[in-house]
Amino acid sequence: MNTQTIKFLSSIGNYVLLVLGVIWISFRRPPSWDLVRNQMYEIGVMSLSVVAITGFSTGLVLAAQAFFQLSDKGLASATGLMVAKAMLVELGPVLTAFMITGRVGAAMCAELGTMRVTEQIDAMRSMAVDPMRHLIAPRFIAGTLMLPLLTAFSMIMGILGGYLISVYYYNMPPNTFLDPLPIHIKTFDLVSGLIKAFVFGVIIVTVSCYRGMTTTGGAAGVGRATTNSVVICYCFILIGNFFLTLALNNSYPYLTEFFARWIWL
Amino acid sequence: MKTMIVVKDLWKSYGKHTILKGLNLEVFEGETLVILGRSGVGKSVLLRQILGLEKPDKGFVEIKGQRVSSMSQHQLEGALQNMGMLFQSSALFDSMSVGENTSFYLRQHEDLKEKQIADRVAEALTMVGLEGTQNKMPSDLSGGMRKRAALARLIVYRPTILLYDEPTTGLDPITAMHINELINKTKKELQATSIVVTHDIRSAIEVGDRLAFHHDGKIAQIATRDEFFKIDDPLLQAFFENAILTEELLPHRSKRRP
After folding, report:
1. Contact B102/B117 with Cβ under 8 angstroms?
2. CB contact (8 A) between residue A119 and residue B87
């Protein structure tokens, strides 16, 4: 095996170790609440505006296109359902994850990368403080909790955008937009979107932190690591989304039965 | 004298480059050992090995009889609570103010009230001559002030082993002199065992009880401060002749030299 292959395989191994390590630490030696709260604010609250704009504009475009494409075929009444389904199962989670990768993941990687190359991480370790617990675990807990919440917010904004343009621009009766929703939108749709958001949260935080913690080569190295982490996150999100969609759709009967028995339907 | 740190047959490579090649060293309790050597010979790598930040390829480091490389994470964290390192780049946490940097260790490891933390921080900052800078950010400080703030961050938790990585590099002679004075003062106050890694001979003379010469991954020479300069080793002679020559180029300095 050549050096490049060994390097590639060892970085995959180290990434998996980081993911397992941060999960273990988050449960066994959780970081202080102050650190988690700060990260929740940074990842969640500070991203609200960007997520709102993304969700809302996507809803607007979806409804405009759906109405334009479907109305001459007599299917204009499907506009609401189409917007809601698309926002819940695909566009909400994926677009929110993309925006959070750009806004939060890149900053996370750059911050940790800078700390790494300026020996701040070593300084922390030399003071008997585990960077995994102090730096990565709070971001991991906050990221995995905030992504589903931000996604839910994006879904609501998308449906609201779709509703507004359909009703006020295309003069669709509000009931035509809203009535099919409770009939055709299942708990499964919402939950599958939120499960995706949770997994994307894990991907964004762990990839960004891993690339940050393994940064070498000064300021230029930080730039490279940040670009690299954003590209890897986008790829992981898109590929992961495909496999998640297959897995969730294939487990539809089991999940529906589970919701019916244990939650509500 | 009691041995505090033992380094035995230490090897460390990065890729194809072997940096440490069977390095042996003993540091006694309460002394300041200065390790001199050219840039890039692995002086900082040695400090990182002593702190347990990296694992050796072969050999070991013992601190008070305990082997660093075979310590569990918990044991290492326990050992590190008695150790501190002043990094070459100061390594202040740049998202925190000087006060937060200085109180970082206390907040992580000691159960103190806010008033007690504030007093300890003020005391440490006063000791390094940075009183009243608690609210300043590291980016507002000069290089020398950053070094002093980093030193305050160490002495606030009173470690018994102190490692200094190039403490005077990149500083003007006056600031470097202040840092040397602070190293001596800290040693006296904390009764600490110190290792200073440097290529600044003036600093080595001012702070060292014993001096060692690091060359080609090993300690080539080690002796007390007075005996060190009498060692008849061409490499060592070349190392400090060049350093002294630089000072003798200044005419008024060479006249004043005794």
Report:
1. no
2. yes
* Pairing assessment for the beta strands B218-224 and B66-67 based on DSSP bridges: unpaired
Give residue-wise pLDDT tens across range B34-89. Answer: 999 888 788 889 999 999 989 999 999 999 988 998 888 888 888 898 999 999 99
In terms of Cα–Cα distance, which of B79, B128, B80 is closest to B102?
B128
pLDDT of amino acid B244: 61
Spatial distance between the Cα atoms of A93 and A260, rounded to a whole number of angstroms: 24
- Separation of alpha carbons A90 and B176, rounded Å: 60
Residue A217 falls in which region: left (phi positive, over 0), alpha (psi -120 to 50) or beta? left
The CA distance from B84 to the nearest CA of chain A, in Å, is 6
Q: Which of A151-160, A211-220, B207-216, B244-253 shows the lowest mean pLDDT across its residues?
A: B244-253
To the nearest whole percent, how much of chain B has pLDDT over 90? Answer: 55
Return all residues near A165 (Cβ < 8 A) that are at least 6 apart.
A59, A60, A63, A64, A67
Taking only the tens place, the pLDDT of each residue in B101-127 is 999 999 999 999 999 999 999 999 999
Residues of chain A by 3-state class (helix, strand, coil), percent to 5? 90, 0, 10
What is the set of domains in chain B, with CATH numbers? 1-82+162-225 (3.40.50.300), 91-158 (no CATH)
Residue B144 has pLDDT above 80, yes or no: yes
The answer to whether the beta carbons of residues A229 and A212 sit under 8 Å apart is: yes
pLDDT at B255 over 80: no
Residues in A closer than 8 angstroms to B73, CB to CB, are 130
The backbone region for B145, taken as left when phi is positive above 0, alpha when psi lies in -120 to 50, beta otherwise, is alpha
Over residues A33-53, mean pLDDT: 95
Note whether B66 and B75 are within 8 A (CB): yes
Q: Tell me: the pLDDT tens digits for A85-104?
A: 999 999 999 999 999 999 99
Residues of A in contact with B149 (CB under 8 A): none
Q: Which residues of A touch B89 (CB under 8 A)?
A: 118-119
Give per-residue pLDDT as tens, B171-194. Answer: 888 888 989 999 999 898 888 999
Burial of A198 (0-12, 13-18, 19+ CB in 10 A): middle
- CA dist A32 and A134 (Å) reads 8
For chain B, give the mean pLDDT. 88
- Contact yes or no for B73 and A128 at CB 8 A: no
How far apart are the C-alpha atoms of A230 and A207, rounded to whole Å? Answer: 9
Single-letter amino acid, residue B184: N
ipTM above 0.90, yes or no: no
Place of tokens 């509703």: A163
Beta-carbon separation of B91 and A130 below 8 A: no
